[in-house]
Each structure stands twice: as structure tokens, then as C-alpha cells.
Structure to design on (1080 residues):
């Protein structure tokens, strides 16, 4: 057994890439060793800015000899077949053995692979690992780069240490030879360091002021920052990302605390924290007032990579840099407040939202109207005026200096500026939080005005991008519409909002039509409809372009939604009838809209399924409820799914499901199409007991279940269905459906159809597994 | 005048007390390292990278080591001499080493020591910062070098220039001279820098220039003329390319780039137009580089058989 040490030394590896690089090193070493038949146990992998290191303990020194036999074609087979067999097994024809298999002379290839020295295998593996190593970005360098084929690495590769049980594993890559020599800290160590093997590697480097274990460095930074803060009577604002980043920037980390001028604390703390973190990679600290409240302190903690002769010099240099940055931030903060948000918002007219979708100002206008509508309709219980006001200002901070500098402060800065202006708190809170929830797990707003603006903003994104055919495809979702829809769903669920999605989609379309009209782009645009009855007796609606009546109540028509669902649509027909520019008349747009509406509702349904599945709800139950169709109220839908889930887990549920499936199978097998009206027909014969029992049970349960569903008492609907379990079981036990008397057969098949229909009203049981 | 200078006792060079001594020390250092010490390019440009000693020399297989100071013009950064850190005219110190030597980082750190930055007193760090200039069809990987948290140098390994792979790769160092000097001299305003050891400050040399040029850049330049100048540079560039003089063409690209910056400072280029102007400058710069490479390629290929343009 032998221990292997590999160190790949190079110029400073970006901190953000080091974790991935450790994974890549492990993956490639295992790949190479697997291919060579060397078993590799646990690996230790370390990284610093200037090296990747790997230790593999307990490697074999030699691979085992392999004896392999392969059966080939029979003697006398065509030459082509025999030659092919030889090639495949890497033997020559005269090396083949002939053996008898079931009385036939057959060729055999016997392959003896001798054991190989693992040192040799590693020597071959190292250049392959370097060659195949995948970095997010890699480069060429030095004299060798006169060829495009020269080695690529994240930054110039400067040394390879490869030792197996203390012996150098010799290999060369692009002129760089492996050895046992490395280097220590860039400034605290001078000259070369000889490594004996895996055992002394970390210690030798420690003596040369390099802590090769990234976890150890992270620990020192984490603890050091805490201690430094504590010594100053403060608490560090924990930031694990920053710990890891600083560990990736240092080989000998030394956290140091400094102070900046108190005056800077006038700007919002998030700004200071972001400036310190993003630009300078500093931690910030909090202090606790006597009354227990905490606030940002005028302190920062930087992580030096040296044990400086005089740490105060390093701290002072860093303080100056931070001060320059903070004075920029303060400048922005003060400059931004010279205008009101309302004035800033005018600048949105110059910002393109999307080339197909106009400016951000256009978007804001739509969001404001929608937010108001949501409140006016009582869908969200907020003040319509406040909702509209907040929506009109919610994007204004995008044109402020501060948000231009720190885009991640969008919303937050608007909230601050609104508060400074003295706007109502509901408004400033709504501006601040309207982007929330950002992704799963983020806080979902509950303040009504915020909810209205947040929903309106996200819904508008969805409507607009879907209408413009810019919906997500595959893994591409450049406008974060999946996230927007998840945000909408989370908000609806958290706030128990009854949002009629279909109606909303229609409203967005209506807005669009009105917009066009307002812009006078299409003077004659409108959509009328007229009933028709064609020669073959079918009836339906034509969608008829007609001159605009500005006060048309077309869209107020309660049947509007039905109009959308007309499927007959014969485009050519209409074209003949109204042979003028149909596209310009809105019909074309209308058709597009029908497709869009469907795509958007499907999209919501898919997101909901994903979301519920992740929350542990059975997907077949979700399907069973979704399959009923016509449901666009999320709250109701989820209540139904929930009731169904608890029902299906009971004995009654399981057995009723079995009964349903049996009934459905029989109907399917008999290709039975039941007449539309199944109720109230008297039997022409005397029903058997079990048959009668089912008829009675159904007469009782079906209306109960139906009314419970319409009143959204889904548990009661399930309870009503549960009463059918006994009768349906007994029916199948005692009654022959396929009776020789056609009357009886028909009546019984109809009975089963009634049963499946009653059950199916509650959920589509055919979708449920089990 | 001469006699007066003669009579002044010689003062030892001290990069910590004089801006020009710092520059001279860097010149000494890089001259000793084998660089050609060039003088600034005699044109207005936004960065030292525009100097032909960087862009055009980054192309092709021939070794090239040069160092020079390049005055840089950033019209929109002008602050009428009122901001202690921002200037519309400042200096970069450029070093270009091709192929990039194996000890380039050590060389660079030694140059810092030479101007008085001791890495055991100051925290020097190489922090990821890649460089890309769509205008030049160029990109590279590297770092910004931090000294106690302050960016003092841009360090780049050129990977592509003018759309061509750099074969071999050149290492480029760009020192921000004023910033470094402010740090070394310990002053908070650029105008307080000692320019020499005889009492002349940076402000004495440049404050009036900043005031006037800020006004000119933001308020005075005749925008109609600027638009014309841009078009003239563009036309001239194409003319030079068509006649196989890519160096002259490249100068016109530099000119167009600066005129564009002036137009921006005058605030007459809308967001939409901006992209289109950048595209036009890029076409000029890339066209010049391509022509240069194309013209020189046969000669290069003959001298370096292992090399090829693409």
C-alpha cells in the first residue's frame, strides 16, 4: 500500500473557482485510476490561491495481473470474422487457441495482462488530468503559447509535485517536469521546499506560512473575525460566502479590524455592507445599544494574507480605500434625494424594458393599473389608491445613482427614498418588498398593498413575455418567468387569495386591445361576433371584425370567456367572408391570444405541480384534480387536492378507487357510451338487492357530493363518496353486469356510468395510481 | 536657468517623495529587465493598451518587451479639478512582455519593491479580474493587484487581440501611477502629490489643465464638428486599410475612439446610438489589426515555422 501526493502549483486561482477545481481534480483522478484498474479509497483534496493538492492513501503499488478469455468464431469461419475478432481483442491470429465447444472447433483469445506499477499509471494519468481539467475560463501563457495547442490552465501552471510513497512519479507536461520541490508563502517564505511525501506535505507548508487546508483557513477567518469584533465590543455580521472567498484569497489569513468615520453611518446600512463586501471583501460589524437594539457599527474586518510587521499600516490603507468607496456611496445617497421618486420615475421613459415590450415607464403604467384593479375587485384587500401609488413609484429607483452602482439594492433603495420623502409607510414598504418572493424560500409579503404590487409586477411580466412569444423553453428562462410564477403561486397560497387566473389573462388582453385603440394604431379594430348556422346544421360563432365602438361593452359581456373557447374557428372561411386585412383587424391577434392564454395557464399549472411535488404532494392526485379542467383558482384547487390526499389514504378511499377502476374498465371493455341523461329511469325489471342498494346509495351520495363540491366543502364531498364504497363492492360481488337480458345489461352499464360520473365529479380517479 | 540648476545640490532619487522619481525608478527597473523604454504615443487615447507597442505588437510571434508611460484621456471622468481622485487626464505605466516570462509575477513584485512598497509591510493580493475590450476584439485573463485593499495594477495575459489568438501570449502590466504615488506619498488628493523634489506639485502641473479640459469636454466642444471628425477618421481609416498601411489606419481608429468619448462627454449620444458607435470603432480597430496581421503574416511565418496566424 502506498500514499500518493499530487500538488499542482500555479499563479493565483480565482477564489470562486477553487471549490469546483477540487471537485474536478477528484473526478479526473478517479476517472484515470478507474480506467487503469486501480482502486482508490478516500481522497483528501485541498486548495489555496496558488495550489491544488491531493492525497490518496492506501493505493496499491501494482495492479493485479488480469487473465481474460474471449470466445471467438468457429474454425473455418470467414477470414473477415476471425480478423475482426483478433483486432477487437488485440491479439494476432497465431496467438489464438482452438478449443472444442459443443463438438465444434472454436477460436479463443487468451489475454494475459500483466500487473502494472501504479507509479507508471499515475505518471500517465497526471498529464491527462491536466489536459482534461475543466475550468470556467482557462488560458495559455509563456513561450509554449506560440502554438494554440499549448497547455491551458486557469492561470500559468508553475510546478508539479508528484510523490508515491516518497518517490517522484516522473512526468512532463508542456516542458514542466514533476518533482518534489514546491514553494511556500509568496512573501513569508523564500526559496524552494523539498517535500518527502504525503505525510510531511501539510506541515512543511505550514512552516512556510501556507495553510494548505482551505477549511482550516476558513475556520481561522471565521473565528478571527468573531474574536476581533468581540475585542472591539461588537459582533461580526456572519457571512459564510465571504469567509470562503477570503479563504480562497489567502494562504496565511490574518483578520484585522478597522474603523471608518461615523458620518458614513448616515447612509443605509445595506449600502455600507454591500460596498464593504462586494468591492473590498470586508466583513461588517454590529453593535448593541443598551436598549437591546442592534445597528451597524463603524467597523470593518479585512483579511490580510500576511502577518504584517505593523498591522496598523495595513488596516489604515484599507480604511482609506473603504472611505473613498463610502464617500461615493454617500454622494449617491445625497444626490438621489435631490429629486423625488416621482421625478426619478420620469427617467424610466428612457429605459427599454424589452425591445418588443416598450419602456419601463410603459410597464409601470400597466402594473399600476393592475395593482389598482386587484384591490378594487377585492381580490387583494388593499387600498387601491395606495397600491397604484406604490406601483407607480416601484421602479423609480432603477434610475438612481445608487442602484446603478449596486443593482442588487433595487427596491430597497426605493423604499428608503420613499420613506425619506414622507410617503405613507404602506407605499414605502411596498416599493421595498415588491420584488419578493425571489425564488423559493424567500419571505412572502403579506402587507396587502405590497401583495398587490408584487403580484401585479410578476403577472405583468408573465403576460407580456408570453404575449410576445418569449416564454421559457427547455432550460432557458432568460426573463425568470418560472421564478415569477412560483412567486405568484407562493403569494396566493400564503395570503389565501382567490385569483381568477383566466379572468386576469383576459383582462391583460383587453388592456392590450384598448392600448392599441388608444394609440389609434388600428382605427377599425374591434371584435364582434355573430351566431351562425351552417348548411350541415352545425351552429357556432363567427368572430367578426367590425368597426370600433369606443364604448363597446363587448368585453364586459359575461360570455366573453365562452367566446374565447370557441373551437370551430375556420380561418379561411372568415377570410372569404371578410376579405380585408384580417391581421389588422384583430382576428389574427385574437387567435394568437387564445393560444397564449392556454400556454400561460398550462405554464401556471406546471409550476404548481412542480411546487406541490416538491412540497410532497402526490403528483397523480394533482393530476386527478387538474384533469377536471376549468379550475384556475389555486386556493380551491389545493383544498381539493388536500382533501383527496387524505381520503385516498383511508381504507374507504383505496377501495372506492378499486371499485371506480373496475367500473371504468368494464365500461371501456364494453365500449359503452351511456346516454346523456342517466337519471330517473325506472327499471323494467326488479333490481337485485345489491343493485338496488347501489342505486339508492348513488341517489343519496351523488347530489351530496356535487353540492359539497360547489360549496367547496371537499372533505364532505369525499365523505359522501365514501358511502358508495360498500354498495359498489357488494354490487360487483353479487350482480352480473353482462346479463343475457339486454335490458338488464344496459341498465347496469348505465348504473356504472352514473357511478363513475359521480365519483369523477370530485376528481378524475382514473389518474390516480394504485 | 542652467546655472541655477547646476548650483542645486544633487538630490538622490526617491520614489516615495516624487512622482517623477517613481516613474524614473520604474524606467530603470524595466530597462534593466530588458525592456525597450518608449515615450508616450503622440495621440489622445483612453488607455495605454491602445499604444501600438501593446496592440499591434501583441500580434505575431516575435518577442517584444517594452515599457512606457501613456497619458490617458477619459473625458467623462473630468471633475473640473474638484475631485481629489478623478481626472480626465492621467498617466498609466504600461509594461508589455511577450512571450509572458515564467517569473513575470516576481518581476512585477520586485518593481513594487523598487518604488518602495514592501510586501511584508503591505498586503499585496492578486484578485481575479479579467479584461475584455470589444473595441479591440481583445480579451485576457488576469488580476487586479491590491495593495492594502487598493487596486494599483491591472495584470493581464492577453489571449486574443484584433480577433486573433495571441501566439505567443503577452503579459501586460498597467500601473495606475497617480494612485500608486498617492499611496506611497501618503496624500489624500492627487493635486497634493509632489511631482519632483523641488517643490512642484501635481496640482501645479495639471490643475489648470483639468479645469479647462473638463470645461472643454463637457461644455465647449462643437458637437457638429465632432460628428464630422468622427466620420472623417472613419473614412481615413478605411482609406489607409485599402492602401495597406494598417498602422496609419489604426491611428485613425484611435482618433475615432477618442472623438466618440468626447461626444459621450457632451451627452449627445443616446443609449441606442452608443452601441452603434462602439460597433463602428470596433470595426475600425479590428480592421486595422487584421490588415496588420495579414500584411505581416508571411514574414512571421517564414521566421517562425511553428507559428500560424489562425
Amino acid at each position: 500500500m502506498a500514499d500518493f501526493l499530487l500538488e499542482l502549483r500555479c499563479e493565483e486561482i480565482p477564489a470562486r473557482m477553487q471549490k469546483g477545481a477540487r471537485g474536478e481534480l477528484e473526478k479526473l483522478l478517479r476517472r484515470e485510476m478507474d480506467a487503469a484498474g486501480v482502486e482508490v479509497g478516500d481522497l483528501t483534496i485541498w486548495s489555496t490561491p496558488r495550489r491544488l493538492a491531493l492525497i490518496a492513501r492506501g493505493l496499491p503499488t501494482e495492479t493485479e495481473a488480469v487473465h481474460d478469455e474471449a470466445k471467438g468464431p468457429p474454425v473455418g469461419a470467414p477470414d473477415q470474422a476471425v480478423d475482426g475478432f483478433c483486432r477487437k481483442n488485440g491479439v494476432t491470429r497465431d496467438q489464438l487457441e482452438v478449443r472444442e465447444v459443443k463438438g465444434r472447433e472454436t477460436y479463443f483469445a487468451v489475454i494475459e495482462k500483466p500487473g502494472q506499477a501504479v507509479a507508471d499509471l499515475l505518471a500517465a494519468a497526471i498529464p491527462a488530468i491536466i489536459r482534461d481539467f475543466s475550468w470556467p475560463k482557462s488560458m495559455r501563457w509563456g513561450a509554449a503559447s506560440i502554438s494554440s495547442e499549448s497547455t491551458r490552465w486557469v492561470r500559468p501552471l508553475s510546478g508539479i509535485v508528484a510523490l508515491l510513497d516518497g518517490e517522484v512519479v516522473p512526468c512532463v507536461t508542456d516542458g514542466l517536469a514533476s518533482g518534489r520541490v514546491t514553494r511556500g508563502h509568496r512573501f513569508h517564505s523564500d526559496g524552494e521546499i523539498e517535500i518527502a511525501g504525503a505525510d510531511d506535505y501539510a506541515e512543511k507548508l505550514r512552516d512556510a506560512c501556507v495553510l494548505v487546508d482551505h477549511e482550516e483557513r476558513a475556520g481561522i477567518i471565521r473565528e478571527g473575525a468573531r474574536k476581533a469584533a468581540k475585542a472591539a465590543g461588537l459582533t461580526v455580521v456572519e457571512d459564510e460566502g465571504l469567509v470562503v472567498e477570503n479563504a480562497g484569497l489567502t494562504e496565511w489569513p490574518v483578520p484585522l479590524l478597522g474603523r471608518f468615520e461615523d458620518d458614513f453611518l448616515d447612509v443605509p446600512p445595506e449600502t455600507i455592507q454591500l460596498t464593504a463586501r462586494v468591492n473590498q471583501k470586508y466583513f461588517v460589524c454590529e453593535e448593541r445599544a443598551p436598549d437591546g437594539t442592534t445597528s451597524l457599527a463603524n467597523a470593518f474586518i479585512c483579511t490580510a494574507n500576511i502577518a504584517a510587521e505593523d498591522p496598523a499600516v495595513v488596516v489604515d490603507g484599507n480604511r482609506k480605500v473603504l472611505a473613498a468607496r463610502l464617500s461615493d456611496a454617500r454622494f449617491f445617497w445625497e444626490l438621489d434625494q435631490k429629486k423625488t421618486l416621482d421625478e426619478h420615475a420620469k427617467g424610466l421613459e428612457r429605459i427599454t424594458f424589452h425591445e418588443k415590450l416598450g419602456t419601463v415607464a410603459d410597464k409601470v403604467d400597466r402594473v399600476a393599473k393592475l395593482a389598482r384593479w386587484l384591490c378594487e375587485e377585492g381580490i387583494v384587500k388593499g387600498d387601491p389608491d395606495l397600491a397604484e401609488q406604490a406601483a407607480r413609484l416601484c421602479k423609480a429607483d432603477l434610475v438612481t445613482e445608487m442602484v446603478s452602482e449596486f443593482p442588487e439594492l433595487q427596491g430597497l433603495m426605493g423604499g428608503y427614498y420613499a420613506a425619506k420623502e414622507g410617503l405613507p409607510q404602506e407605499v414605502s414598504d411596498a416599493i421595498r418588498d415588491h420584488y419578493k418572493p425571489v425564488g423559493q424560500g424567500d419571505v412572502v409579503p403579506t402587507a396587502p398593498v405590497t401583495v398587490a404590487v408584487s403580484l401585479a409586477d410578476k403577472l405583468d411580466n408573465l403576460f407580456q413575455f408570453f404575449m410576445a412569444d418569449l416564454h421559457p423553453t427547455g432550460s432557458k428562462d432568460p426573463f425568470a418567468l418560472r421564478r415569477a410564477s412560483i412567486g405568484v403561486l407562493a403569494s396566493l397560497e400564503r395570503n389565501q387569495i382567490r385569483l381568477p387566473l383566466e379572468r386576469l389573462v383576459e383582462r391583460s388582453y383587453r388592456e392590450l386591445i384598448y392600448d392599441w385603440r388608444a394609440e389609434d394604431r388600428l382605427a377599425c379594430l374591434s371584435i364582434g361576433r355573430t351566431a351562425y348556422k351552417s348548411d350541415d346544421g352545425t351552429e357556432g360563432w363567427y368572430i367578426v371584425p367590425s368597426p370600433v365602438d369606443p364604448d363597446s361593452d363587448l368585453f364586459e359581456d359575461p360570455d366573453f370567456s365562452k367566446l374565447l373557447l370557441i373551437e370551430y374557428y375556420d380561418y379561411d372561411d372568415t377570410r372569404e367572408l371578410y376579405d380585408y386585412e384580417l391581421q389588422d383587424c384583430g382576428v389574427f391577434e385574437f387567435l394568437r391570444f387564445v393560444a397564449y392564454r392556454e400556454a400561460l395557464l398550462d405554464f401556471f399549472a406546471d409550476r404548481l405541480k412542480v411546487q406541490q411535488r416538491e412540497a410532497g404532494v402526490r403528483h397523480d392526485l394533482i393530476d386527478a384534480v387538474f384533469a377536471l379542467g376549468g379550475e384556475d383558482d389555486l386556493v380551491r384547487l389545493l383544498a381539493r387536492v388536500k382533501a383527496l390526499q387524505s381520503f385516498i389514504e383511508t381504507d374507504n378511499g383505496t377501495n372506492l378507487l378499486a371499485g371506480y377502476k373496475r367500473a371504468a374498465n368494464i365500461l371501456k371493455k364494453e365500449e359503452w357510451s351511456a346516454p346523456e341523461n342517466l337519471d330517473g329511469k325506472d327499471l323494467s325489471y326488479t333490481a337485485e338487492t345489491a343493485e338496488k342498494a347501489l342505486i339508492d346509495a348513488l341517489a343519496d351520495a351523488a347530489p351530496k357530493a356535487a353540492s359539497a363540491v360547489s360549496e367547496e366543502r371537499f372533505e364532505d364531498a369525499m365523505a359522501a363518496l365514501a358511502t358508495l364504497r360498500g354498495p359498489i363492492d357488494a354490487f360487483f360481488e353479487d350482480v352480473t353486469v353482462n346479463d343475457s337480458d339486454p335490458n338488464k345489461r344496459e341498465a347496469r352499464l348505465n348504473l356504472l356510468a352514473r357511478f363513475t360520473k359521480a365519483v369523477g365529479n370530485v376528481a378524475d380517479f382514473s389518474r390516480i395510481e394504485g | 536657468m542652467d546655472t541655477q540648476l547646476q548650483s542645486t545640490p544633487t538630490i538622490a532619487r526617491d520614489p516615495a517623495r516624487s512622482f517623477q522619481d517613481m516613474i524614473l525608478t520604474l524606467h530603470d527597473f524595466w530597462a534593466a529587465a530588458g525592456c525597450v523604454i518608449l515615450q508616450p504615443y503622440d495621440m489622445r487615447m483612453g488607455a495605454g493598451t491602445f499604444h501600438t507597442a501593446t496592440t499591434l505588437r501583441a500580434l505575431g510571434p516575435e518577442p517584444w518587451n517594452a515599457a512606457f508611460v501613456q497619458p490617458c484621456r477619459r473625458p467623462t471622468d473630468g471633475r473640473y479639478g474638484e475631485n481629489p481622485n478623478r481626472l480626465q487626464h492621467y498617466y498609466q505605466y504600461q509594461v508589455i512582455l511577450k512571450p509572458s516570462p515564467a517569473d513575470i509575477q516576481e518581476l512585477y513584485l520586485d518593481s513594487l519593491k523598487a518604488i518602495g512598497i514592501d510586501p511584508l509591510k503591505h498586503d499585496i493580493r492578486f484578485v481575479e479580474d479579467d479584461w475584455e475590450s470589444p473595441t479591440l476584439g481583445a480579451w485576457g485573463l488576469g488580476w487586479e493587484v491590491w495593495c492594502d485593499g487598493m487596486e494599483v495594477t491591472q495584470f493581464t495575459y492577453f489571449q486574443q487581440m484584433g480577433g486573433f489568438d495571441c501566439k505567443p501570449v503577452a503579459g501586460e502590466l498597467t500601473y495606475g501611477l497617480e494612485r500608486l504615488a498617492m499611496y506611497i506619498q501618503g496624500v489624500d488628493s492627487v493635486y497634493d502629490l509632489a511631482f519632483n523634489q523641488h517643490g512642484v506639485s501635481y496640482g501645479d502641473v495639471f490643475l489648470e489643465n483639468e479645469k479647462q479640459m473638463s470645461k472643454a469636454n463637457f461644455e465647449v466642444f462643437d458637437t457638429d464638428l465632432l460628428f464630422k471628425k468622427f466620420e472623417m477618421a472613419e473614412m481615413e481609416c478605411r482609406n489607409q486599410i485599402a492602401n495597406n498601411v494598417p498602422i496609419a489606419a489604426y491611428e485613425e481608429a484611435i482618433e475615432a475612439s477618442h472623438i466618440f468619448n468626447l461626444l459621450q462627454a457632451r451627452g449627445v449620444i443616446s443609449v441606442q446610438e452608443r452601441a452603434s458607435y462602439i460597433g463602428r470603432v470596433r470595426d475600425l480597430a479590428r480592421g486595422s489589426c487584421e490588415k496588420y496581421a495579414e500584411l505581416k503574416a508571411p514574414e512571421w511565418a517564414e521566421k517562425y515555422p511553428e507559428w500560424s496566424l489562425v
Remarks:
- Chain A touches chain B through 47 residues (CB under 8 Å).
- The CA atoms of residues 67 and 112 of chain A lie 5 Å apart.
- Chain A has a mean pLDDT of 85.
